[in-house]
Amino acid sequence: MHSLILSTAARYLLPLLLVFSIFLLVRGHNEPGGGFVGGLTAAAAFALFAIAYSVDQTRHLIGVHPRTLLGTGLLVALAAGCLSLLCGLPFMTGLWSNLALPSVGKLGTPLLFDVGVYLVVVGTVLMIVFELAEE
Amino acid sequence: MDDSTTDDTGRGNDRPRLGVAESLLATIPLIAFLVAAYLTVTGRTLRLVWSWVPSLQVEASFQLDGLSLLFCLLISGIGVMIFVYAPGYFRGHRDRWRLYTWLLLFMAAMLGLVTADNVIMLFVCWELTSLTSYLLIGFKHESEKARAAALQALLITGAGGLCLLAGLLLLSRIAESQELSTILGAADALKQSPLITPAIILILLGAFTKSAQFPFHFWLPNAMEAPTPVSAYLHSATMVKAGVYLVARLSPALTGVPLWDNLIVAAGGVTAVVGGAYAVRQYDLKRILAFSTISALGCLMLLLGLGTKLAIEGAMLFLLSHALYKATLFLVAGAVDLGTGTRDIRRLYGLFASYPLLAAAAILAACSKSGLPPFGGFLAKEVVYEATTTLSGWATWATTIVALLANACFVAVGGLAAVHPFFGKPGEPSVVPHESPPGSSQLPAGGAARLLGWRLVFPPVVLGLLGIVLGVLPSVTALYFISPAMSAVMGQDIGVKLSLWHGFNLPLLLSVLTVAAGVGIYVQRRRFVAWVDAGGILRYAAEGGPQAAYRGSLALLKFTATWQTRILQNGRLRLYLITVLASFAGLVIAAFLYRVEYTQFGKLLNLRLYELVFPVLILAALAMAVTSTSRLAAVCALGVIGFALAMLFVLFGAPDLAMTQLAIETLTVILFVFVIYRLPRFATLSSRGVRIRDAVVSLAVGGMMTVIVLAATSAHAPSRVSQFFVDNSLAIAKGRNMVNVILVDFRGVDTLGEITVIAVAALGIFSLMRLRLEPSQVPAEAAADRTETTLAANGEDASSPSEQAAPDKPSATGRGE
After folding, report:
1. A73 and chain B in contact, CB less than 8 A
2. Of B46, B51, B165, B488, whose CB neighbour count within 10 A is largest?
3. What is the domain partition of chain A in residue ranges?
């Protein structure tokens, strides 16, 4: 089943949705958003691309296996929690830098933790979607 | 009779040289020994504390007093000998490094056990010794017997360990400290607390299982499946004494509590007699020694339970001398086994010519075991008799008789295990029973024995000689070993004077009587065994009864596990859901009925019209999803419900939830579409009754959830937790989006756990979908079903298999709907 409209739309929607998902991720601490919903959005974008084209092309586009995303995400989240240990603070104490970015706010380990959540969600959903779609 | 001819070294014919690391293994325990010896000689006590789990006030604290040091010396000193011996014993064995690792781990755990001051630390080390014992008993893991023995030892000592943990926690709760040194100081508080009875029972369960006291003793003879160096180290000299150590450690606080004293004396007394008598009727060298170890452990418990100064003195002396001579005898037995290929005393005799040094070591050990002067065992036995004869009333008689019986059996065991293999003659009536041993025609007479390396001979000789040193230098023994240990056990400074010669008195007379009785038992062994077996009571107590109880409880456990798996985990997702949902709803509804005050709902109908649109939409979509006969339609209807819910979230000011709900709904629909391709055509399979049952459960769960939500929103007490989040979200966590701040900061650890669960679930789904059963595997069950069906279909002519298969059919396929 190949639809020209869908595949053309998907080609433009994918980068837009990915940018939007990252937008959701980074603003999450102050405005509605966050790693979970950002990850879901990104995963939906890739799923759409997989439907419009093929799983193989989507895999090629992502470049890494979803389970790599999964593992990286877990490690990033864990590392975000462990950074405070290096400063002699209890596990998962938030550390903040004074550097502030527009629409993101201050940078700190909670954002890094959210990045981990984002990656885990993307990895999980894509792993299931790819497996189901590849049949 | 056991298979006593196993070669548990697994070696080949060639004898490879030892590597440097292997030959220097003994330096590790040697360092520990030197440290312990230095501390002993200088008479210093040490206390080391590290912070371990500060949030639970658990500290890794160690305290070295006289009792700890005595045990440390035994553990490290005998450890040196074991690590000299083991490389010779296991020369060229494939798995020898694994064994060395476990042995070292065991030694570390055991040293930790006897020095720990924190009860949690003590428990952890206690369980570590059980675990390493399990691994070491099961070292010959190809042998089913070894595996079963290892598991038995682990289950019994592990269960006892859990009891011990509960008991120690009770103690630390009463004394409000986890440090043993503080707990022992709170003796009065302990004795007055009502919790002391359960605490004592639990702690003694731990001590009795570990130290093989009746009726938990039966794992120890079975543990002889372990390689002999392991038996010598763990199951005679050190690990089995952990229970004795624990009782001695707690004595300053608990001696004088009647329950404590009586239980220990009773268990110790019975164990001493049963083990001793039963040792004499064994034929396997290691089993003889195992039962006599049980008896010795019983004696130690008995003495600690008596709790008088003399009894404690006797216990410490006996502990020391027993560890030395029993390890010697085990090491000799291992060397003999290696040299001749058997441990069956019916096939071992006249080995003196082949192994003169081993014979010397064995005789030294046997003399100490028999309590002959001038050996350490003599010192111990004299003090023990002095202790038992100075009690009052019937206790004096009972304990003296028990001690006499046990010691007489020790003399006989010494004869069987040490004298007969080296100096005996074939077919001696004292050894050979009515029936001749298996394969007795190919006896390895003295000359057929293999040559043994120095590593197998040197350690038993050294340990045997140490037995004399103990006795010849009684003042040294008293000053460095017994007095400090006694001070720790009695809780006050005590100086002890020991001497070999006490003059002609009652203990000496009893000693003479003991030796005479022991020689009598040895010479008249056949009669003694017949007497022991008479009525079968002792046999039942020593082997049959407890073993049967163990097997019975294991069978019960397996039956229960099978039963509950078949009922609860039957592999049908629908039934799982029904079980979970129905019990959830049932419990909550019961709670609501029980506590009616929560079921007051306020401001129910305060809704605007446009807010009602979405609930109505949800109900309509719900009706469609339930009644539709098209899967795609049902999925779309579910999607409508999800989007309507998201709109409700938007209306009621939860944009985060709404956004997530929308994303989830989108992905769910995509996933459903993928799945629908794979499903068979839609069909109604459930019967009417099943559908009604499902409807009832669904309505109950839905109704219950509705009631909960209504009740929760009408409750007026505001949650202090949410106020905390409102106050601190920006101030502490620097975020204005409270939901996200909770997720990544306040409850960040929860989220970390959740994403881990998500990741594991994803991997599970991934592997399930990748699981491609080979064509030969898939129909295995189906094929079995088909066979049964054809057999059953054969009708009246079907033979017995079909009759067995037929009743199985309904239970296999007719379960559920």
Report:
1. yes
2. B488
3. 4-133
